[in-house]
């Protein structure tokens, strides 16, 4: 009984810590949401309470009179294409590295892992020069190869360790039945690594969706601006309409939160399974 009581107390402490952390994380999201429904003066008067009469003029302006939907489409295009290519190349590379024995495979694997340890922004000058030499400055298409290179190391790390934990009997049975390497990859490996693919997709989605560094460095033209870069143009030189800024930030944040809530179990399963070994 004493052991059971002790375990209940430990669980209670854990839940209290998680509750406090949840409130800390939720507080800025709540503040952003409620202030997006207020007029400018009401934000400064009382920034933390829900307005008695919600004001939707900021949402009407952002959705109807601004280029928000263009920025949103540009971001969705870059994110979707980048994640698809990253998952395709990353899963193929992870499949090869998981079954490739030898020193060369370890060297290649460590080379990819170094991409996680070394921030990609350290190579901004060289990346800028490469993109400019390719004639992609100011274009969305200059972002895609950069983001693929950014996402591949994490994709290969998670997927390789996940594939290495799969039962080898499944691969051997498929080989006995005469299945080719590509057939095994498509019919056996991909269905089993879906949780890991979801994890990689969410990690890359958050990184790319929130990135403002490379869109700013590449000086994207107005019709090619991404969402986070577009937010900066709602800030005025001498005065800022904070209602409109908070509306844009709210609309940009909600899809990520909803997606994470819907895929949280798969995300946690893939992340923990891919991090057990290594």
Protein described:
The longest helix is centred in the N-terminal third of the chain and has 34 residues. The protein has 13 helices and no strands. It is mostly helical.
Which helices and strands, and how do they pair?
Layout: H1 2-35, H2 40-45, H3 57-65, H4 68-99, H5 103-117, H6 124-133, H7 143-164, H8 168-176, H9 181-192, H10 194-209, H11 213-217, H12 227-232, H13 242-273
Helix pairs in contact: 1-13, 3-13, 4-7, 4-10, 5-7, 7-10, 10-13
Give the proportion of residues in helices. over 70%
> What sort of overall outline do the alpha carbons produce when their principal axes are compared?
globular
Largest sheet: none
Backbone structural class? mainly alpha
Residue fraction in strands: under 5%
**Tally of helical segments:** 13
**Total beta strand runs:** 0
Q: Any idea what the radius of gyration is? A: 23 Å
Low-confidence stretches: 274-278
What's the helix-strand series? HHHHHHHHHHHHH
Average of the residue pLDDT scores? 85
Distance between the termini: 39 Å
What's this model, at a glance?
The chain has 278 residues and is an all-alpha fold. It contains 13 helices and no strands.
Q: Which characteristics define this entry?
A:
278 residues; globular; mainly alpha
